[in-house]
């Protein structure tokens, strides 16, 4: 994979993001941005030291790792790391801690004895998880934007190669014997338009740095953590199973999402999708998963439902064997293997079991706490509060709202379709436009200020309408939040900054190809010397700093099932991340916008351009 | 009643004494004939009636043919809830615990009307009255309530504001529909006879048991709570856990979120009248006729316990429909997404699928039928069924509807047992024919929508006048 940024550029980009973040905070509140001391800890992932005495907490909001006494919850050490850390793990010998910093594109290497940062290595685009092989020679880093696994020398951090993974590669798990590394991804792999999404678990032989298998997860979009039993015979992945192809006419009976696990390995003999929900109650956003040492229990956190599901493994396997056909859509199945639902804090994410399996630690990201569960009693026996702001700000409340499943019967929330406040790579059939009509691609929601109106038809002038009455009536199908909470939510959404653009140099200089693309983007005369009408110049509609005139146009991309051919001009920021393209997601790539869906040059004059010139245009657009 | 609230809000002084020590049974008899057996920490309202015909309303008949009286049980004392009423029943306490809705007749010859009275006391206020009976009022979100209005075709479900404004009919079939509870998700739990629409024609009525159904607050989305239909299920109420407890025959049973079938409740022996009220401490307040007893009395049961604790009995009257006077959670408001159309659109993803087994023969067409108030069945036309079992039709809203699957020769492959309705402007999808609420849809585009996004109009010639053109 090409590395476009030097380490200096990485730092600059991180600083840029930090400033953007601060700007969002500042403008949202009209008050000074919080100092690091005022930032919420936002614990995302947990690790226990090999001896079980220390609890390592990855605090995403505070950009640090906190080391706690696992028994008392007392903080023993705080270690600053990179920006927006997303994953961490110990080295094979336990002497180093690796932290994947998603917005810095770095891995922080920490000496566990001294607690000092020993090195910071570049590690691809948006590192999200990091694991060292058992031999201690190779480091694997899942890169969400890179869609790959970077393979680094564990001693020097030098990148040796990259392995192609699923789209939005994010989470890595090493098997107990170190013979296999499992990688998941949060965005679905490309499939033909209007066909079910697919995902995969990429299986890597870490001793050879080679992909040895790709377990297909049909119908799944959004896969999070994987757990492997100690004996290596049972694997479990937490995931979302969306219903984006069915008109979203109502919500009950799993009409928008079901929450599932994929169970695989020798104990199962195949990959099986196992539902977690019930008929009248849903357990949204399954994220973290752990298997008890004796394999008798599986624990799953639900980020949207603020609880942990406890599964009896033996019962689950029995049910699987008794049901050779798929039962992923059977909402009554979970009654046969779920033995408890334990309420924890807000937005529970990572979890870790004590070595004897007697305690389960759960990171509650949005209330800065760790729930400690007795696995014998299936109840919370201790709650560890992490230091941070006492007051819950409007921004924080908005984030809590964003991640809570507000839909009918708690089936889903904003973050189901905007994974980690981004997008989901899916196209949805919303009900009010008619069944099978006005299929809409889901859009990224970063840096939305100045991109109004919203919706592809431009029908919602403000976020208040977008997130308020529209969401209540046609998404939740249930009472929405009150006005104050809606205001908090809008504050949060408006505060979301654009992530660093990995395709643009920190100093703003363009590569030759990007510069050629910029010239094409801004041209007023075509290659035949004919003037391009102002209305058909790229920069006419895609104008301004965000690449949108905020107006609707008919550029000939309407389909027979669209009620109108007029579409809101989408902003161009972070365009490289958000395939597929066009209002209905019918263009698999940027190239297809012009090579397939622009036969009459109504979407800009492009049919005079060569393949190379279109490539240049793509290169430029990726810098936006 | 004023005393009631005073004690509920500030347990002190003489009321504390009453709370702790109670009053002797003979004193409890002073204001009413019901005998207090056990002192409870919250006030309870119930109906006392010489005769209680629990299923009568589902036959359009009177549940309390010899009258009924709402009583309050509190601190060792029972007393009438309201004075000056020839009959009163169906108490339902507001979410803030301050106001009681009830059905009442000031004079014996009156129709049942809907009244409210403050828990603190005062003069009852007529909320809604009509030329026919209005019964079973239940609070909903935003100051509305649902009730059953007797009409020519039977008791129909309606909602209205507390000022009587904005009445909205929820049920659109002949027959009797009686609300049981408003679930916290905002839907109305109601009972009717199974199959839905039974009661109009003799063939459907024969042996049709009571069953519980759900409908949104705008009348859309009507469906069975569960599809393991069997013997009668009635008088359900939702508990704090979300479970719905009801009587199955004369035993208690429940629907719980995880199960597609009802689950038995291992309650002590007795005949239960349903309408279980949950106490703030989680115990259940039940109306039960224990073995050897003539009438229903009130008892408290801690789920899992071996025995009941008698709360109140009356040698001459049944004590039924208990409610606890305490604040409770406000159910969700349902944001209606109904369109301004005269018709509804219905999409089936795979009509071959059914809880009772998939069809062996692929259906070629689907016929829609409606039923008028006399039970006369009218065909609305047929529409093709795609190879994947999907079909997409448009039907006139707010009328009886059922589907019959046909083979290529027009022979019936399967037909719905009962009827349902689609609201005007409703768009609704089913997975298959009677797949049950446990079945979530597969994530795929049904073939019919790949062929056309225009539904086949099955509005019937006779009813075509009410079907507007257009669609989306």
Question: Would you mind describing this structure in some detail?
Answer:
Helices cover 17% and strands 29% of the residues of chain A. Chain A is of the alpha+beta class. In chain A, the strands form 9 sheets. Chain A has a 4-stranded antiparallel sheet, with no helix packed on it. Chain A has a 4-stranded antiparallel sheet with strand order 5-6-7-8, with no helix packed on it. A 4-stranded antiparallel sheet of chain A has the order 9-10-11-12, with no helix packed on it. Chain A is globular, with a radius of gyration of 24 Å. In chain B, a hairpin with a 4-residue loop joins strand 9 and strand 10 (144-151). In chain B, 53% of the residues are buried. Chain B has helices spanning 2-9, 13-21, 25-28, 202-205, 447-451; strands spanning 35-36, 44-49, 69-74, 77-80, 87-93, 99-105, 113-118, 125-128, 134-139, 144-151, 154-161, 168-169, 178-182, 188-193, 210-215, 223-224, 233-238, 244-248, 251-255, 263-264, 271-272, 277-278, 284-289, 297-301, 309-313, 318-324, 343-348, 365-371, 377-384, 391-396, 400-406, 412-415, 420-421, 427-430, 456-458. Chain B is globular, with a radius of gyration of 24 Å. Chain B has 2 domains: 2-324, Neuraminidase (6 Propeller), CATH 2.120.10; 343-466, Immunoglobulin-like, CATH 2.60.40.1120. At the A-B interface, helix 6 of A face strand 34 of B.
